Amino acid sequence: MAVKETLSELVAIDSVSSHSNVEIASYLKMRCEAMGLKVKRFPYMDEKGVEKINLVALNGTDFSDSTEVELALVGHTDTVPYDPKWTDATTLIEREGKLFARGACDTKGFIAAALSAVERIDLKSLLRPLALIFTADEEVGLIGAKRLAEARPLRARYSIVGEPTSLQPMRAGKGYCLAEVIVRGREAHSAYPALGASAISRAARLIVRVEKIAEELREEQHSSFDPPFTTLNVGLIRGGTAKNVIAGECRLTLEWRPIPGQGSERLLELLWSAIADERKLDPDFECVVDASRTDSGFEISPTSPLVHLLEKLTGKRAGTVAFGTEAAQMIELGADSVVLGPGNIRVAHKTDEYVPTDELQRCVDTLTTAIDSICR
Ligand SMILES: [Zn+2]
Fold first, then answer.
1. Fewer Cβ in 10 A, N or C end of the chain?
2. Annotated catalytic residue: which of 70, 106, 138, 187?
3. Could you report the per-residue pLDDT of 169-219, keeping only the tens digit for each?
């Protein structure tokens, strides 16, 4: 089947992360089985009780306790939601060399290209095993990939993780971490400040310290990134109940993207030490830190054979990404991982998301040659 046709069928299946991905997983299972691959479903229930499927398809080996593959192509099946006013979100529309639909760029374009590449190849002639991995819940915290890394259905030597990079190979990525900081105070009538303690004022003092932490983290540089340090953002703040009440509670959301090699705990240690300093000045200072996400970054050597191969095939030097990907989980499964796919991350997650038609086609060629070079 032509890659455009496959993409058109993939985007027609609504697979927004909040819904079950059973339908798109069934479609992919059918396509993989038609090519003679062995397919296994790895189902789980998400936190809302909705069934989700990670799907693994193998060529040249079977599922066992020690399945090993030479190359895994990895794509996530879920998409971000779309504006109901975008009535064509699940219909692939081609206009001026671009293919528009939700997921066309992130990441169904890559999945369509991977299926087309595998279809083109005489699989029986491959000497080393190949896997296709389709995950769930990437957009809501890499949950499917994390499940798969825990289940360890296979080990992989190399993996290509599909994300829109305009076909530039990306050999490193920053991590993604989130924490909610709950600062407590003591409520009182605002006319009698001595009776209370404002959680908002306490939070404000803590934020000043958080800004100092951000400055400190700028000193730890990783020159492959732009910006070359861990970034830190207080993106949300909520506190107080009324204008004439001294605030009893203030919550702030801290998001940081650590450079590879710097664990998520680095910032948390600095935060705890800032809290300890604040307590020296204000012994009643009370605060809880709830770190809900601590995804570390990833990096593979610029001299990895996979990096060399993909640089040669795409004519582009390997770079780095500042957004979260499933490469870290693939590294847990033993793989040297590179992120690569058609389309640009800047149009992903937007209405009128698209993938350029020629890039989609070139992705098929790149993946075909990559499979041939690595598995033959
Ligand atoms: Zn994606």
1. C
2. 138
3. 999 999 999 999 999 999 999 999 999 999 999 999 999 999 999 999 999
Distance 129 CA to ligand 1 centre (A): 25
3-state secondary structure of 159: strand
How far does the centroid of ligand 1 lie from the alpha carbon of residue 117, in Å? Answer: 20
Task: Please report, to the nearest 10 degrees, the dihedral formed by the alpha carbons of residues 203, 206, 212, 215 taken in order.
Answer: -50
Helix (H), strand (E) at residue 113: helix 109-120
70: Cα separation from own chain's centroid: 23
Strands 68-76 and 155-161: parallel
How many angstroms separate the CA atoms of 368 and 107, rounded? 18
Which letter does DSSP use for residue 258 in this model? Answer: P
Cα distance between residue 111 and residue 32, in whole Å: 12
Task: Give the residue from 99, 105, 96 showing the smallest Cα distance to 167.
Answer: 105
- Reported as a single tens digit per residue, the pLDDT across 293-333 is 999 899 999 999 999 999 999 999 999 998 889 999 999 99
